[in-house]
Amino acid sequence: MFFSKLVMAALAATVLAEKTPVTPLLLANFERYAAFASAAYSSDCANPPFNSTVVRYINDVPTDTQATLFRDDIAQQFIISFRGTSDIQDFVTDLDQVLVPCVAQGIQCPTCLCWQGYLIQYNAVANTVKSAIDAGLLQYPGYSLVVTGHSMGGALASLAAASLDGQGLPLIAYTYGQPRTGNQAYANLIDSAFNGTMYRLTHTNDGVPQIPAQSDGYRHHSREYWQSDDPPTIENTFQCQGQEPSDCNQSEPGYGIGNGGIGINAAHLSYFGISTGNPLDPNAAC
């Protein structure tokens, strides 16, 4: 019995040891793109993050899907940032959680299923987003592309990344407080397409990454990076292993593994020291 307990303790320690602190460069990037994710909540960003320029506001009125395309001439980047939940129409979309075939331009995966509401939203702006990015890269051919978003915007960013990558656009993606977006096949697609270039950020006990439940057929893709405490430091921000790591965001009290999420809470409204998606502070990063 004693030996069994020692083995179990050793195994537990091994699992926890897989969680490793991030580098200063990674932390700086997480903070940087959190600002762009926050800025997408503003429809008139007077002071875009890092002295960037707003190239275009994209808004599909029927689905209330909004994204902002930024250009950062210092970093030589285009950043497309998708807005998260902001109004009643968005909450309707949030509730449309039926898994349906993940059909979008560039996504070649017959077994992939995605959140119906978010798939409808992305497809409503997909052509406009692609055209705006293409036009920007044509004018600035040496610039790179980053895709980001918070909450619902994180799910849209995940779909956009898969779609744009499938259409031949190299990119890096950062999602913040992203809910589960698709099924196991979709998670596997993201993992195979983005080997280390898709960062899924979570914050302390944020409840949104815990929904929808795995028991409903949903699965997170890998590369979770968890900010376990405030303020963010390299000592409390970790790279987590696997698609559903139990020692990061899911380790917080009140969560079962993959189930029992509580949705929006205080931790969801702040990422890497930046107010994000807070209805009382919609222009936080602008």
TrEMBL record:
<dbReference type="InterPro" id="IPR002921">
    <property type="entry name" value="Fungal_lipase-type"/>
</dbReference>
<dbReference type="InterPro" id="IPR029058">
    <property type="entry name" value="AB_hydrolase_fold"/>
</dbReference>
<dbReference type="Pfam" id="PF01764">
    <property type="entry name" value="Lipase_3"/>
</dbReference>
<dbReference type="GO" id="GO:0016787">
    <property type="term" value="F:hydrolase activity"/>
</dbReference>
<dbReference type="GO" id="GO:0006629">
    <property type="term" value="P:lipid metabolic process"/>
</dbReference>
<keyword id="KW-0732">Signal</keyword>
<keyword id="KW-0378">Hydrolase</keyword>
<protein>
    <recommendedName>
        <fullName>Fungal lipase-type domain-containing protein</fullName>
    </recommendedName>
</protein>
<dbReference type="InterPro" id="IPR051299">
    <property type="entry name" value="AB_hydrolase_lip/est"/>
</dbReference>
<feature type="domain" description="Fungal lipase-type">
    <location>
        <begin position="79"/>
        <end position="214"/>
    </location>
</feature>
<feature type="signal peptide">
    <location>
        <begin position="1"/>
        <end position="17"/>
    </location>
</feature>
